[in-house]
Amino acid sequence: MSRRGEAAGGGLSVRGLAIEAGGRRVIDGLDLELAPGRVLALAGPSGSGKSLTARAIAGLRRDGVRVSGEIRPGPGRQIGFVFQEAAASLNPTVTIGRHLAETVAAHGGGDARALGVAALERAGLPDPGRLWDAYPFELSGGQAQRVALALATVLDPRVLVADEITTALDPVTQAEVLDAVRAQAAESGRAVLLITHDLAVAGRWADELAVLRDGRVAEHGPAAEVLAAPADPLTRALVEAAALGAPAAPAEPGRTAGPGRTAGPGRTAAGAGTGGAPLAAEGVRRVLRGRGRTTVALDGVDLAVAPGEAVAIVGRSGSGKSTLVGALAALDRPEAGRVLFDGRDVWAGRERDRRAARRAMGLVFQDALASFDPRYDVRRVIGEAGGDPSLLARVGLDPAMAGRRPATLSGGERQRVALARALAGGPRALLADEPTSGLDVLVQERILRLLADLRREEGASLVFVTHDLRVARRVADRVVVLQDGLVAEDLTDLSAAAHPATRALLDATPALPGELPQPAL
Amino acid sequence: MAEAVRPRGLLAVRLAPRRPAIAAAALVLAVMGLAAVAAPLLTPYDPIATDTAATALPPGSPGHPLGTDLLGRDLLAGLLYGGRTSLLVGLAAAAMTVVLGTLLGAAAAAGPRWLDSLIARAADMLLSLPMLIVTLALAAVAGPSLATVIVAVAVTSWMPVALIARAELRSQRERLYIRAAYGLGLSGAQVFRRHLLPGALPPVASIAAFEVGHAVLTESTLSFLGLGIPPNRPSWGNLLTETKAHLLTGEWYTVAYPAAAIVIVIIAVNVLANAVAPADGRAW
Amino acid sequence: MRFLAVRAATSLLVVAALSVLCFGLVSLAPGDPAAEILEARNGGRPVPAAAVAALRAEMGLDDPLPARYARWAGDALRGDFGVSYLTGRPVSETLADTVPWTLLLTGAATVLSVLGAVAVGLVAALTRRAWLRRGIETAMFVLGGMPGFVSALLLLYLFAAVWRVLPSGGLGRPGEPLTPGVVLTYLALPALALTFGHHFGTYVRLIQSGVGRLRDAPHVENARVRGLSRWTVTTRHLLRPGLVPFTARLGVGVGGLIAGAYATEVIFSWPGVGRQAIEAARSHDYPVLVAVVLVTGVVVVLANLLGELAVARLDPRIRRSPRG
């Protein structure tokens, strides 16, 4: 592989890139040109070689991967690279300051402290002096990602490669990090290659969008144009999957309020109080005790879910979303307040009644695989919940899969098995904790559609936790916004959002053209 | 460092399990166990009877296939009867260790917080002492005997078992599939029986096997030092006590038989222990 | 330095527990120390009961157990461990004669095993040759199945009987001056035996897995992509976090080494404290035995403490954990 020297002109130029991994040619003749100051989003489904391309451009090599082609600039101080797992990309035994200083020193020096502090500030970290002596494990996820960004840009490289850097972050933090990336690109004329699977992210933060298919760039153009009028079939499919709300589930009043039911619409019941709700929380307070510190995860939450109603619980990480699901599922006893199922306080009754309440609720977790006993095959997983393999057909799987172990299934298939298990007891309510984060957009779209169908068929209520407002709007009749363990806002219409926490989430959520009501800035 | 279980030397060396090795190890142990049990049928000699007419015979001598020592004791008989003692001590001590350790570990994991920290602290503390020294003091005070050795081994090696059982039960309890099982409406007893116990069993089974090897090692070391099994009852360890000098005078085989037996048993046991141990990356 | 204080306090507690354990064991042991002393001094012949009773009173053996413990512990703190039942010599003198040799032996073995294990472990972790890695793993597995005294006997046989390159034991011939060269010659075999007989395989394994696991870790790749020198990448980003499990084990390992020195010293007739302990244990010379166990225990606890401090130095997660 040849590399031209530090040619004048700047920007990023990739010609004829070919990557072979494990004997398979994943990237085959990829060309990219990116001018200084521009942000290019490189999108594609999982397995399309996005990350391999990013790593090849940064000059990262691994056993069994062969790279050829021409890349400018070559690896070195002109290319910065930010990893997906920010916390893991920092050495846990070395301070942040030392990371920055050693990078500066490796490329000829300068005032390491001044450069490092400036880089931390540019990355949007408010107190760089204090962070200097911190260790990576003392940072939050958002802080770690910003530190990683500062580390990659401390020497002001001409090119920045960012490999899915916001996948693990909540939307507000994601927006802050990507805003910083974009601002830096504009200020210092840096070319940014943004690897992402989220076209909405591409639409909001990238100038250009390139879609990978079969190892080549299938489509490349200004992001807004590509998203508005995708030419390539893959791009079209991705855009459709990403445009969650609009085409798949038009918000008709008749469908959202308890589909197929003659009972009164859930909204009025919920608004009127907890009387008719099958599932409700009243003043629920949960305190989590960890190693040497206690957190008030829920601080008096009221929530009522009507029969057949779908409620989305959204909020930033740490807002108490998952804790609320644990309380609603009658699994975790609240320190104060009541959890009602069918109007009865589950913690006032006997253990047997509590177990009956749990059986009448179907639980789905984000990490489906971890929620299955590793010794069980699919048949036993479903059997333990009282179902049989014929349920697999209902979730779109081949019943012949019953003999397989969940570990051998794909992410989407595992989540379907989890849904089949949740359905086995004939649930009156489904509780789903981020069931689609971490899945490919195309897979996510299919799971969400399945969930909507199942809810309609079963007539069950749905409580759906997500940090993604687009997903929330897609699945739910009502959106409950949590902040710091409190209900900030309870909305049936996102455009009526008034609370700052909701506004912040809305502002931060990227949307495809015409998808979300974007409040005026 | 409460969570970090510190396995001892035997435990921490791990090889990727391979099937032929497992079969071979099981076969070796079976043969050795059978030979020890059937010792009176396999040799006509009394292992401690001296025979002045047949002293210091080399291996291959007629009637004494492995030879005799300087006092005319048959080496094969010593090896077979020694195996009886050593394997008996190994199994008995390991059984005691595992029962004691598992009970304490389970009590720590399931019991109230004060009991948990008491057991965990005590185990941590005792682990930081070289147990051979305590065993030695114990053996010295109680006087050398088979029972002393068994008790000494059990009393000084329950800690890793307890810590592993405790850590295993605790980590199992925090797994998402345990939560999912409760979410299905299962009772605590059902969750324990179906998910917690089967999950915690492989590591405990593995360490139980390692403990057999460890007990054989400790017994042989104590006996070798003259503080374990008294010499009127041959064990692989005490057979080596008197023969050390033979290394320099040419009768190396008097040392080699018992030493090889000890090493082979421990290695075979470790191979089996590796085979039942859960892989590093867990089941998924 | 909250961390240091907590650790030091724990160590003191361990030593105190050990002293109670030792004293308790000896007090519960069968036999009458006064009678044994007098018999030993009388050449093994029985002595009149009145003399025994007088000595019992003089030794304070009729006092309640806690009072005896307090007196014994107080004396021990001042370095007075009583006199040997067998020889009548103050135990502290015996300790002064033997402890330095044991420290020399275990010190040498510690240095050898750390250097050897780091070298072998790094080769196993970083080599791309599968056969080499497998070979090292297998060798370490076999080593893990060898009791310390068996590997000592093997080395003794090879070096002293077959190749005859090293002396089989002791420390110098009678009348020979103990020059450093002579000491080294006699030290070599026991030190080697101690090195390979205890924890060596464990060390190698911990280094191999600790470093091997990090070879392609994101933070190492990040260090490479940031253009750091090979040396910095390897030492700071690969070895420093990669050697944490090994270092964490080292404290316990050194403790085991000191305990293992007992058998090694017997085999090689090394004039250390371990041989004293075994002889004392065989002959029920409790003052010597207790003193040796206690002194060894203190050294082991110190080694553990040093090990923990080393880990804390290497890994800030331990230093800054809320539990201290």
Describe it.
The complex is a heterotrimer of chains A (521), B (284) and C (324). Chain A has helices at 50-58, 96-106, 112-122, 128-131, 141-153, 171-188, 199-205, 223-228, 233-242, 245-248, 253-256, 266-272, 321-328, 351-359, 378-384, 391-394, 411-424, 441-458, 469-475, 500-508; strands at residues 12-21, 24-34, 39-43, 65-72, 79-82, 159-163, 191-195, 208-213, 216-222, 279-289, 294-305, 310-314, 336-341, 344-345, 361-364, 429-433, 461-465, 478-483, 486-491. The model of chain A is unreliable at 1-8, 246-275 and 517-521 (pLDDT under 50). In chain A, the strands form 4 sheets. A 6-stranded mixed β-sheet of chain A has the order 5-6-7-3-8-9, with helices on both faces. In chain A, helix 9 (233-242) crosses helix 18. Chain A is of the alpha/beta class. In chain A, strand 16, helix 18 and strand 17 form a beta-alpha-beta unit. Chain A starts with 11 loop residues before the first strand and ends in a 13-residue tail after the last helix. Helices cover 70% and strands 0% of the residues of chain B. Chain B has 12 helices and no strands. Chain B has helices spanning 9-12, 19-37, 39-42, 75-110, 113-127, 131-142, 146-173, 176-183, 188-224, 236-243, 246-249, 252-276. Chain B is elongated, with a radius of gyration of 22 Å. The two termini of chain B are 26 Å apart. The model of chain B is unreliable at 1-14 and 280-284 (pLDDT under 50). Chain C is mostly helical. Chain C has helices at 2-28, 33-41, 49-59, 65-77, 91-126, 130-144, 148-162, 180-197, 200-214, 218-225, 230-242, 244-267, 273-282, 286-314, 316-319. The model of chain C has no long low-confidence stretch (mean pLDDT 87). Chains in contact: A-B, A-C, B-C. Chains A and B meet through helix 14 of A and helix 8 and helix 9 of B.
